[in-house]
Design brief:
Layout: E1 4-10, H1 13-23, E2 29-31, E3 42-50, H2 52-64, E4 71-79, H3 81-89, E5 92-97, H4 103-114, H5 122-140, H6 152-162, H7 167-174, H8 178-192, H9 197-206
Parallel strand pairs: 1-2, 1-3, 3-4, 4-5
Helix pairs in contact: 6-8, 6-9, 7-8
């Protein structure tokens, strides 16, 4: 298996040097140094407390990173709730308590982040779900949108297209005109930059909307 490129951001040089040395013995990861850091798939951040300064460092690194889907793993003694939400926006995929984080746990979190999986404490996951429900109820719902970015009407159409129906059959099933169905599909394609209806269905499936 190809090793995961990881950059290390720490509050002091001693901690950083210790992490670089410790991770060097793990074949699953490779620490990138110097200019090569910009090519890392994962940013590993170690701090006593996740502060605005730490979050600013993550944001600056993300802007210079070559991978737009950079995963962030944070190892810290303390992180406040509003900082968790900001960290998620910046790509947080792993959160470990510094007291419990050994090199094995850190390596697993880094590999998971590189593969697009998030390994977060149950309390953080619950809070994120609560936030999503609030956004859906108070912001998206009144506008006819869902968390996925699709409207309920768009999802109805895409779901039927995914079942193999053509636009005429979709129109008949939903009691829409065929022109309305085509306009809905065109709206999805335009908003998400998709090539055709097949691409639209595939995109909705990959995003978890269908």
């Amino acid at each position: 298996m190809e090793s995961v490129g990881v950059a290390v951001l720490a509050g002091d040089q001693l901690t950083r040097d210790g992490l670089v040395a410790g991770l060097a013995s793990h074949p699953a990861v490779e620490v990138y140094l110097g200019e090569r850091q910009r090519s890392a798939r994962v940013l590993l951040v170690v701090a006593d407390q996740v502060s605005e300064e730490v979050l600013g460092g993550i944001e600056r690194f993300g802007r210079s990173a070559r991978h737009r889907d950079l995963g962030v793993v944070v190892v810290a003694n303390e992180i406040r709730e509003h900082h968790v939400m900001r960290a998620v926006e910046l790509g947080l995929a792993g959160l470990l308590h510094r007291r419990d984080a050994g090199f094995e746990q850190i390596t697993r979190a880094v590999v998971a982040a590189a593969s697009g999986r998030a390994e977060l404490p149950a309390a953080v996951t619950r809070r994120l779900l609560e936030q999503l429900r609030t956004v859906q109820r108070d912001v998206l719902g009144p506008r006819g949108l869902t968390v996925s970015g699709f409207t309920e009407r768009e999802l109805e159409v895409l779901r039927l297209l995914a079942d193999g129906l053509d636009t005429g059959e979709v129109a008949l099933k939903l009691n829409y005109s065929q022109r309305t169905v085509k306009n809905i599909i065109y709206g999805v394609m335009t908003r998400f930059g998709l090539r055709n209806r097949t691409h639209a269905v595939a995109y909705a499936i990959r995003s978890g909307a269908l």
